[in-house]
Design a protein that fits this description.
- The complex is a heterotrimer of chains A (about 250), B (about 650) and C (about 230).
- In chain A, about 35% of the residues lie in helices and about 10% in strands.
- By secondary structure, chain A is of the alpha+beta class.
- Chain A has two domains: about 5-110, Ubiquitin-like (UB roll) (Roll); about 115-250, Fumarate Reductase Iron-sulfur Protein, Chain B, domain 2.
- In chain A, the strands form two sheets. A five-stranded mixed β-sheet of chain A has the order 2-1-5-3-4.
- In chain A, strand 6 (about 110) and strand 7 (about 115) form a beta hairpin.
- The longest helix of chain A is centred in the last third of the chain and has 19 residues, at about 230-250.
- The N and C termini of chain A lie far apart (about 65 Å).
- Chain B has about 650 residues and is α+β, with helices and mostly antiparallel strands.
- Chain B folds into two domains: about 1-275 and about 420-645, 3-Layer(bba) Sandwich (FAD/NAD(P)-binding domain); about 280-415, Flavocytochrome C3, Chain A, domain 1 (Alpha-Beta Complex).
- Chain B has a five-stranded mixed β-sheet with strand order 1-21-20-12-18.
- The longest helix of chain B is centred in the last third of the chain and has 25 residues, at about 565-590.
- The radius of gyration of chain B is 24 Å and the shape is globular.
- The mean pLDDT of chain B is about 95.
- Chain C has about 230 residues and is mainly alpha-helical.
- Helix content of chain C is about 70%, strand content about 0%.
- Chain C has helices spanning about 15-20, 20-45, 55-65, 75-105, 120, 125-140, 155-165, 165-195, 205-230.
- In chain C, helix 1 crosses helix 2 (about 20-45), helix 2 (about 20-45) packs across helix 4 and helix 2 packs across helix 9.
- Chain C is globular and about 55 Å long.
- The N and C termini of chain C lie far apart (about 80 Å).
- The chains are: A alpha+beta (about 250), B alpha+beta (about 650), C mainly alpha (about 230).
- The interface between A and B is large, with 78 and 83 residues.
Chain lengths: ~250, ~650, ~230
């Protein structure tokens, strides 16, 4: 199939970018979206042009490295990661716009590559359970009700790709932050740091310059792992609880 | 750069000996070693800097643990975040000898299974230590909040995996690797935030700096600015993963690479058993030349699916139109007692054989059917969906075929590499101060890795083994001279790195990096893949130097070195693959036995089974680098089996 | 040897609330719910207009004598006014500050534009501005009677009829009431989420409640000008 691609090209963080049009044929519908970009890049290299830079690694939908906005949708029209999106979801002759995640807290590094290190700093602020190696009690010492374990797992599935921020009209990281808060706060192992975790992670999120949540719901629609919007409400509840408790101390 | 030297005319040097493994009963060796190892006073630890390369299960766990102990850790990963290493893609689970099921499991049984599963090419002391530590790993991960599957009583669930008779595999749905990695990443993040770990993401190690025979630092390139810089430490830990991507198409992440271990090898670290590569039988076959990687499907599918190909050559009818008596259920035919459940290597080779005969199915004839029609008839569609629903969904997303109606197509793919840098019991390589952990080393899996053991080994190395053994090295080498970028060895390493990058940019030829990567990968897959012959390996060994020569004349890398340049990154990794491929073939050529993931057609029983030759090959082959294209030197580490006695496998 | 990675010093409750995006949203949610409760009461009061001038004007007078004899004349009313004013100011300032932050957090727009989110969600900011302006006009029109040409103090029934006898009075009011409906529709549900009341099971109930409230409020308020226009009230 033939496609007209319009791809965001930006030399580096300090140079303004623009959409550049490429016509590409011999695209197979069995290709993944990233393999389609590979094909484009092979042609660009042989023409002596710089290939389009984009982040990717596992190409199995789990590492969270890849992610571009395709025709205005984070990760494109299917609810999956860009690497697991296949070209059969496009039609011959389509024009496809490819842009990087856009958010103040995710500056563009080059072309479709953005800097998501803000996510790492949010995790560093409290997205962990403090248990130095060797200090752990026997695994069965604390049973965890299955419902809580499942709730924790559903939130722990987050791959940190940043699609939620990219899709949010406010560039908010609430869904990402809430996924980690909920994962750890529901577990008995996470209980001692339950209050500090949510307070510190929310303030780290604010300090990184992410926007606030207006419950537009775009994040949950874009999330390739299906983290649902009530995740945010659950974190708000944790935050209010922690704020109440902290003010009483 | 033509090489006239005969690469295959290698010499055998002095044996390599593991001087750190204590004597005594195998079950007490780890305690003995921990007691004998010298310690570093807690107050002095912050004066020691340790470099850790990689942030997978092994690297992430090691970085966090060393920082918790008080060391100053400087850590690197090429990804944009330490949360993305390819450990994250492991699906199945992690083994531990907890015996929660009361089904007769024990540390000794896990030890026994792993030595036997490795086809008697692993060290008993290492494997026993791994089995002992497996128990602590589960405790540690649960305390970190890893959401393992649980039963209604709130206790951990386990399942059996990879044909083992006990239920010792802990799992978190099909995402165990992800959950364990995030646990390590979170522990690491805590130490980064506390300032105990200096994290350099998007920074790739390109060389090792060895001063006075000791590993003292690395050369690394900032992938954003392109700046090549030096970093110094008292010890260097490589946790950079395996080298499966030398095959181009593998289940590895696209950017997983062998540069860190290969550069260390060039600087003196021996490379052991490179020919021990694992091929996984149930991957989704390639759909065309554009294929960039292969995706694994859980092995559990073989429990209910039946594998077949048409009896006739070149039969292109759709599967539904091929009548029952024209189908060849070849595994059930050749291995009547195990049928579709034969081990990974056997299933893989059988698939290759029928495809080589021209009976393969799907585009390019590189696939076999995995048919669930019988299972659906027998169990009902709902039961099949309950068991395999998520896998079927994944398959359909990638292939657009509905496996409930059309048989799946599968084909084997490179999945894991058991070989790696040679390490002693302390996980130290032959370069003092250089340690290798996780898939980067060769130590625990012998010639074949059992399912759910990779996660166990990565975490054992990272959380427990290395943080204990590295103390001994640091305590015995307390006062290193301070060195900086002006040291001649550092200057030399940086100059060599810059020179290599500049040469890559200067060729300005007419072939892309991927085209070379694909070529070397196809060559290896053909001649050093599932079944290897002397003739094929010699052909590959003849061809590799030619490709290398062509590479340096025809490679085209656009852009500059002073920016994010993904073509340059790829090309630079291929430089190392072009050398590693040669050693891989040589190791396969020299080992004229079949064992584990290494199958030499010349060494098989009358029934076509792999035939091990213990009298000649009961050793680990550690290769010493002698120059590009020059025959390396072989150092043998003799393996002794005092507890698990070698037997020949049979599945017919 | 793990070093402590946190301190336990915490800012005061007020600073936590005002100093974080989640806290400011909480302020907006609480102030919004206060205004919503007021709107419900206000709408019910408005419906008394259907029972004639006497009953409506008596009700209006009662608003001033509410709480007597414990409270002095108009004390209760002023109490309500102060609370409402505080709610409006907090709601508005928080909305303004959060909006500025949100816009900064998304400095460059996507080239490929797509309609996203529901209409009610997308119109929260403009709707809020429209409502703020409406409140000013509404107070000048029916409380201070500054812009109501035919106004007579102490005759609220007649004043309402006067307002809805002008075309612009009707237009302004109808537009504002549609804005109220949309604002409440997303605002009520959103406030519930902010206050942590949402979960997967409750979501449908909350959404239905939000839609119901929006509909009832809009219908209740709009019924008055429609009644004046059609001559039912006059």
């Amino acid at each position: 199939m033939r496609l007209t691609l319009r791809v965001w090209r930006q030399r580096d963080a300090d140079t303004p970018g623009a959409m550049v049009t490429y016509d590409i044929d011999d695209i197979s519908e069995d290709m993944s979206f990233l393999e389609m970009l590979d094909t484009l890049n092979e042609k660009l290299i042989l023409r002596g042009e710089e290939p389009v830079a984009f982040d990717h690694d596992c190409r199995e939908g789990i590492c969270g490295a890849c992610g571009v906005v395709i025709n205005g949708d984070a990760h494109g029209p299917e609810r999956t990661t860009t690497c697991q999106l296949h070209m059969r979801h496009f039609d011959d002759g389509d024009t496809v716009d490819v842009e990087p995640w856009r958010a103040g807290a995710f500056p563009v590094v080059k072309d479709l590559v953005v800097d998501r290190s803000a996510f790492d700093r949010i995790i560093g602020a409290g997205g962990y359970i403090s248990v130095p190696t060797g200090a752990a009690p026997e695994a069965h010492a604390t049973p965890v009700p299955k419902a809580d374990a499942d709730f924790a797992f559903e939130h722990a599935e987050c791959i940190g790709c940043g699609a939620c921020v990219a899709a949010c009209p406010n560039g908010s990281a609430m869904l990402f932050t809430s996924a980690k808060v909920n994962h750890l706060n529901v577990l008995p192992q996470g209980a001692p740091e339950r209050e500090t975790r949510v307070l510190d992670m929310v303030s780290a999120m604010d300090e990184e310059g992410f926007g606030g949540c207006t419950l537009a719901g775009e994040c949950a629609t874009a999330c390739p792992k299906g983290i649902a919007l009530p995740s945010i409400a659950a974190m708000n509840k944790e935050w209010l609880r922690a704020t109440r408790k902290a003010s009483r101390r | 750069m033509s090489e006239n030297t005969d690469y295959t005319a290698y010499e055998t040097g002095a044996p390599v000996v593991d001087t750190k493994a204590p004597a005594g009963p195998v079950a007490e060796r780890w305690d003995t070693r921990r007691f004998e190892a010298k310690l570093v006073n807690p107050a002095n630890r912050r004066k020691h800097t340790v470099i850790v390369v990689g942030t997978g299960l092994a690297g992430g766990a090691a970085g966090a643990t060393l920082a918790e102990q008080g060391y100053h850790v400087v850590q690197f990963c090429y990804q944009d975040s330490p949360r993305r290493a390819h450990s994250i893609a492991a699906q199945g689970g992690i083994n531990a000898a907890k015996n929660y099921r009361n089904d007769g499991d024990s540390v000794h049984r896990l030890f026994y299974d792993t030595v036997k599963g490795g086809d008697f090419r692993a060290r008993e002391s290492n494997v026993h230590r791994l089995a002992q530590i497996s128990v602590e790993i589960i405790d540690q991960c649960v305390a970190q909040g890893v959401p393992f599957a649980r039963e209604y009583g709130g206790l951990l669930d386990t399942r059996s995996f990879g044909g083992v008779q006990v239920s010792r595999t802990f799992y978190a749905r099909g995402q165990t690797g992800q959950q364990l990695l995030l646990g390590a990443y979170q522990a690491l993040s805590r130490q980064i935030a506390a300032g105990n770990v200096e994290m350099h993401a998007r920074t790739e190690m390109l060389d090792l700096i060895v001063v006075d025979g000791r590993a003292r630092g690395i050369v690394a390139r900032d992938l954003i600015t392109g700046h090549v810089d030096t970093y110094f430490a008292d010890a260097v830990v490589l946790a950079s993963g395996g080298y499966g991507n030398v095959f181009y198409l593998s289940t590895n992440a696209k950017n997983s690479n062998a540069t860190a271990i290969w550069r260390a090898h060039r600087r003196g670290a021996y490379f052991a058993n490179p020919c021990f590569t694992q091929i996984h039988p149930t991957c989704i076959p390639r759909s065309g030349d554009h294929q960039s990687k292969l995706t694994l499907m859980s092995e559990s599918l073989r429990n209910d699916g039946r594998i077949w190909v048409p009896k006739a050559h070149g039969d292109t009818r759709p599967p539904a139109e091929i009548p029952e008596d024209e189908r060849d259920y070849y595994l059930e035919r050749i291995y009547p007692s195990f049928g579709n459940l034969v081990p990974r290597d056997i299933a893989s080779r059988a698939a290759k054989n029928v495809c080589d005969e021209g009976r393969g199915v799907g585009p390019g004839g590189q696939g076999v059917y995995l048919d669930f029609a019988d299972a659906i008839r027998r169990l009902g569609r709902d039961a099949v969906e309950e068991k395999y629903g998520n896998l079927f969904e994944m398959y359909e997303r990638i292939t657009a075929e509905n496996p409930y109606e059309v048989p799946m197509r599968i084909y084997p793919a490179i999945h894991y590499t058991m070989g790696g840098l040679w390490v002693d019991y302390d996980l130290q390589t032959t370069v003092p101060g250089l340690f290798a952990i996780g898939e980067a080393n060769f130590s625990d899996h012998g010639a074949n890795r059992l399912g759910a053991s990779a996660l166990m080994q990565g975490l054992a190395d990272g959380y427990f083994v290395l943080p204990s053994t590295i103390n001994d090295y640091l305590a015995r080498n307390p006062h290193h001279d301070d060195i900086d970028a002006s040291h001649p060895e550092a200057v030399r390493a940086v100059a060599e790195t810059n020179d290599r990058l500049e040469r890559l940019l200067a060729v300005d030829g007419d072939r892309t990096p991927d085209s070379f990567h694909r070529e070397i990968g196809e060559l290896l897959w053909e001649y050093c893949g599932m079944a290897r012959t002397e003739e094929g390996l010699r052909k590959a060994l003849g061809r590799i130097p030619e490709i290398r020569e062509e590479f340096w004349h025809r490679i085209k890398v656009p852009g500059t070195g002073q920016e994010l340049n993904q073509s340059l990154e790829k090309a630079n990794r291929i430089v190392d693959y072009l050398e590693l491929a040669e050693l891989l073939c040589l190791d396969a050529l020299h080992r004229t036995e079949s064992c584990g993931g290494h199958f030499r057609e010349e060494s098989q029983t009358e029934g076509g089974e792999a035939e091990r030759r213990d009298e000649e090959f009961s050793y680990a082959a550690a290769w010493e680098f002698a120059g590009t294209g020059r025959a390396p030197v072989l150092h043998k580490e003799a393996l002794e089996f005092a507890y698990v006695h070698p037997t020949q496998r049979s599945y017919a | 040897m793990a070093l402590a990675t946190r301190t336990d010093r915490r800012p005061s409750l007020t600073r936590s609330l005002w100093g974080s995006t989640v806290g400011k949203k909480t302020v907006m949610a609480v102030s919004g719910l206060i205004m919503l409760m007021y709107l419900v009461a206000h709408m019910l009061g408005n419906l008394k207009i259907f029972f004639g001038s006497g009953e409506f004007n008596t009700y209006a007078h009662w608003l001033r004598t509410m709480g007597e004899p414990l409270l002095h004349y108009e004390w209760a009313l002023w109490g309500v006014r102060v609370v409402l004013l505080a709610a409006v100011v907090l709601h508005g300032v928080a909305a303004y500050q959060l909006s500025r932050r949100d816009i900064r957090a998304r400095p460059s727009k996507y080239v490929h534009k797509r309609r996203r989110a529901s209409y009610a969600t997308r119109t929260m900011r403009w709707g809020g501005i429209i409502l703020a302006l409406f409140i000013v006009w509404h107070l000048l029109d029916l409380t201070t009677l500054t812009v109501n040409e035919n106004a007579q103090p102490g005759r609220p029934y007649e004043n309402v009829v006067a307002t809805f006898s002008t075309w612009y009075g009707n237009v302004i009011y109808l537009v504002a009431m549609l804005a109220v409906g949309l604002h409440v529709r997303h605002g009520f549900w959103s406030a519930a989420q902010t206050l942590g009341m949402g979960n997967a099971r409750r979501d449908r109930i909350l959404k239905t409640l939000a839609n119901g409230l929006a509909l009832v409020l809009t219908a209740g308020f709009v019924s008055v000008p429609v009644a004046v226009m059609t001559g039912v009230v006059g």
